[in-house]
Design goal:
The chain has 302 residues and is of the alpha+beta class. Helix content is 46%, strand content 18%. The chain has two domains: 169 residues, Sandwich (Jelly Rolls), CATH 2.60.120; 108 residues, Arc Repressor Mutant, subunit A (Orthogonal Bundle), CATH 1.10.10.60.
Length: 302
């Protein structure tokens, strides 16, 4: 379980009280980080362990697509309940609160994709991110069902180029899901989409400078309130959380792919105090930087 407290990215750290009671999991009921390129699991595999009911929870850095092949149930998405039937799929963006109640024997698949994998697959100019940020129940298609089956088959096998194919197939599936969302529900307007793309670009340029929401709003010639309204419409999340999440992703990459001490990573990310960086990281992920690195590499925490 990752921490149930979200840290807002500014010098006066605040607890997100409205969300602190929602349990945050990497995968429902598990503490380990996503161990593979994607995670593939049937609906029955986990639901049967919980009497076919999964209590409301959220995933801090995981995007999920659930597809029902046969059966029925209900999905709870941010407090609203939706009926589920055969060939329904549920799109659950990163951080969205969700839960399920299935009829016993319901069959289908759950594909879980790490935010870092999505970052590599989604280009800002294509507008997929705004569509995928909309949680909801949608009609699936034969193409999506076939692609989901192909992903599960590739995931279960251990063939050469498995990771490459899983990334490619998952990118294709997420594209088809975005297409269905855009067709069935629409996407934010062109003006808002362009402004959000500019915000994303600014985050890429300045996330190491510890810009605040006010700094980004000023650069975009909008108010902080308008910027937050824009990011909620585009992703369902606040501007401060998006800024923090970008910083956390950078920290994770450094922890996984470099041998730099945690203190050096903290300084490189613009923190004057490594202990404060460790507290921010732990509050956002549920693990200290050293514990996360030890978990990934199978060693002891520093």
């Amino acid at each position: 379980m990752e921490g149930s407290v979200l840290v807002l990215y500014n010098s006066n750290m605040r607890t997100a009280l409205s969300r602190s009671a929602i349990q945050v999991y990497n995968l429902f009921g598990e503490k380990r980080d996503l161990p593979d390129v994607v995670h593939c699991e049937t609906i029955a595999a986990r639901s049967v362990l919980h009497n076919w009911k999964l209590a409301v929870h959220r995933h801090a850095r995981l995007h999920q697509v659930l597809l029902i092949e046969r059966g029925s149930g209900e999905a709870t998405l941010d407090g609203r309940t939706f009926p589920l039937k055969s060939m329904n799929m549920v799109n659950v963006p990163v951080g969205d609160v969700h839960g399920y109640s299935f009829a016993p024997g319901t069959q289908g698949w759950v594909l879980t994709i790490a935010a870092e994998v999505l970052d590599e697959a989604l280009l800002s100019a294509e507008g997929l991110r705004a569509a995928l940020a909309q949680a909801g129940v949608l009609r699936s298609t034969r193409e999506i069902r076939a692609l989901m089956q192909q992903i599960f088959a590739e995931h279960a096998a251990r063939h050469f180029a498995r990771a490459h194919l899983l990334r490619a197939l998952s990118a294709a599936l997420i594209g088809l899901v975005a297409r269905e969302i855009a067709g069935q529900r629409g996407t934010p307007g062109a003006v808002d989409s362009e402004l959000f793309r500019r915000f994303e670009a600014l985050i890429e340029q300045h996330h190491l400078k510890r810009w605040t929401v006010a700094d980004y709003a000023e650069a975009l010639s909008v108010t902080p309130t308008h910027l937050n309204r824009l990011t909620r419409a585009s992703t369902g999340d606040t501007a401060s959380h998006l800024i923090l999440n970008r910083l956390i992703r950078e920290a994770r990459r450094n922890l996984v792919y470099t041998n730099l001490p945690v203190s050096m990573i903290a300084y490189a990310l613009g923190f004057d105090d490594p202990a404060y960086f460790s507290r921010v990281y732990a509050a956002a992920t549920g693990l200290s930087p050293s514990a996360f690195r030890a978990q990934v590499h199978g060693g002891e925490a520093e």
